[in-house]
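Quick one: C2H2-type domain-containing protein from Clytia hemisphaerica, C-alpha cells please.
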Amino acid sequence: MSDLHLPENICTVYPSSHLSAINGGINKPHQCSQCSMTFVNTSNLKVHMRMHVGNKPFICHIDNCKKRFISSSNLKVHIRSHTGEKPYECNVCGKLFSHSGNLKTHLRIHTGEKPYKCDVCGKTFTNTSNLNSHVKFNHEEREEKSVWCTQCGKRFAFRCNLKTHMRVHTGARPFKCPTCEKGFINSSNLRVHQMSLGH
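--- reply ---
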C-alpha cells in the first residue's frame, strides 16, 4: 500500500493498523527503529516489530484454518469470522460488527465525518481503503491516455476528467450558483463565475 496519502508517522508496512495510534497529547516514548512509529509501552513496540520481521506466532486452529497473526488480540478478532460473533453494536441503527474499528468507521456514515482527503481533487472519505481505491481508479497516471469519450472520441488519462467531460454531451450542470441559480459543469467554472460577479 502506498504511503502517499498517510501522515508521516504512519508505518508504511501496515499503515491501517496504526491509524488509531495517532492521538495528540499522549506520551509515546518507545520508537520503532524501522518506521519511526511511536508507542506508549515496550510491549506494544514488540508486537509492532513482528510486522517488520514477519513473525506471526499466533495460529488459528479452527476448521484447520492455520492463519497466523502477530498478536493474540488479532487472532481473537479473526476467530469471530469463524464463530460469527459480533459484539460491537451501532447505537444509531443497531448494525453489529466483529471489530471495534469497523464500528468506528461505520459510525462515520451517521456523523458524516470523512477524515481522509484526496491530495489531488480534495474529495473526502470515511476510511483509507476507499481513499486508496479512489486514487487508484481516478488519479493514477497511465502511460497513455487510457479512457475515452464514447460520444466524440476524446481521450483522457483520468476517469474523473472523462466524467466531467461527459457533462458537455449530457448537458448536466450539477454545480449551481447559490445567488443566481446558474449551473456549471465543474466547481472551477462556478468559482470563476462567483468571483467575476462578486458573489
